[in-house]
Amino acid sequence: MDNIAGVKARILGQVADAADESALETLRVAAVGKKGEVSLMMRGLGKMTPEEKQVAGPALNALKNEINSALAARKSALGDAALNERLRSEWLDVTQPARPAQNGTIHPISQVTEEITAIFADLGYGVAEGPQIENDFYNFDALNIPPEHPARQEFDTFYMHRADGDNRPPHVLRTHTSPVQIRHMEKHGVPCRIIAPGRVYRSDYDNTHTPMFHQVEGLAIDTDISMANLKWTLEEFCRAFFEVDFVELKFRASHFPFTEPSAEVDIRCSWKGGQLKIGEGDDWMEILGSGMVHPKVLEAAGVDATQYQGFAFGMGIDRLAMLKYGIPDLRAFFDSDLRWLRHYGFASLDMPNMRGGISG
Ligand code: PHE
After folding, report:
1. Rounded distance from Cα 301 to ligand 1 centre (Å)
2. In the structure, which protein residues have their CB atom closer than 6 angstroms to any atom of ligand 1?
3. Of 169, 92, 177, nearest to 131 (Cα)?
4. What is the pLDDT of residues 176-217, one digit of tens each?
5. Ligand 1 site-directed mutation target among 178, 214, 252, 293, most atoms within 8 Å of CB
6. Cα separations in angstroms, 97 against 34, 44, 94, 101, 335
7. 312 forms bridges with which residues in the sheet?
8. 197, 198, 125, 181: which is closest to 358 by C-alpha?
9. What is the DSSP-derived secondary structure letter of residue 177?
10. I need a labelling partner for 292 at 20 to 30 A (CA). Which of 144, 163, 240, 251 fits?
11. Are 14 and 73 in contact (CB under 8 A)?
12. What is the pLDDT of residues 96-110, one digit of tens each?
């Protein structure tokens, strides 16, 4: 059995030296595989005398077992070493501060639109939309502004280009959100309570005017709506929007072809030292136009004006944003200056804050 001891010493030595799992596998096949060295030795048992067999059999079995467990032990040692090496090389410092991530901000216009929508949702208003490229029927005629009406000039309208000989009705960039009144009533009828926020366009440019700006239209039509409801709604809105118990509003008699009577609303503010502040000072900023919807407008939208009446208003979203967040120049809203956007923008999880709430 010297032979067995020698084979054992050699193979166990080789197993101990195996550098990786594939070397180990080669050794396993050569030793205890079907045609391996030990397996062949076991086959030799058949030619032995029973006495020889009694000694060699258990010895060979023991040898096979020892080799198998040496292989398993070496295999797990190699595995541990590989894991340790991975842990060492893939080490991660979880205490390291994260790299600053580039976060965008919510534009004040988007923020304020959300705030307005939330307040009117509390008052039972849905949201309607209409196209920014309008035909002159919806932008003007249906709103009681016939072609020769001077209000058409006042609007500084952008007309869409028409090739010579193209005599389709003129299209314009809508000058206000009021056409959505008509589209909504035409499609959904009355009674209704909606707001319609969106972009509008007029050829105008200074620190409170840009050629593209934003309005939110309001429309409430029913059988029993009066100017008093309009006034309450607007006051309540301003209180909730500006988060104050009291806002000073001036209802100024005015004229719009599509409302009768009409009122424009100004809000008290001050512009001292490049700062715009609401609720103090001797300046007034116009924030909206409003009035009782003209019967002709209701008729143009297919509504029976002997049965129904109601109010409408159009507010400047941009101006509300300027006032609420103290932003003095409207033009900067649309310059895409990252410094401005980071300064005046909102984090994505900022919720419209409604400390004022709606009473009544
Ligand atoms: N459409 C008007 C404007 O743009 C505002 C307005 C809307 C006035 C609704 C009265 C009623 O100036």
Report:
1. 17
2. 176, 178, 256, 259, 262, 289-291, 312-314
3. 177
4. 999 999 999 999 999 999 999 999 999 988 888 899 999 999
5. 178
6. 57, 68, 8, 12, 34
7. 219, 291
8. 125
9. S
10. 240
11. no
12. 998 888 888 999 999
| One-character DSSP codes across 217-248 | EEEEEESS--HHHHHHHHHHHHHHHHT-S---
In one letter, which amino acid is 180? Answer: V
Mutate to test the pocket of ligand 1, among 234, 258, 318 (most ligand atoms within 8 A of CB): 258
Is 60 exceeded by the pLDDT of residue 357? no
**In this predicted model, what pLDDT tens digit does every residue of 319-349 receive, in sequence order?**
999 999 989 899 999 999 999 999 999 988 7
> Quick one: tokens of 261?
């009577």
Whose tokens are 């096949």? That residue is: 29
Ligand 1 pocket test: which of 176, 233, 287, 292 has the largest number of ligand atoms within 8 Å of its C-beta? 176
Question: Residue with the nearest Cα to atom 12 of ligand 1?
Answer: 289
Distance CA 202, CA 225 (A): 31
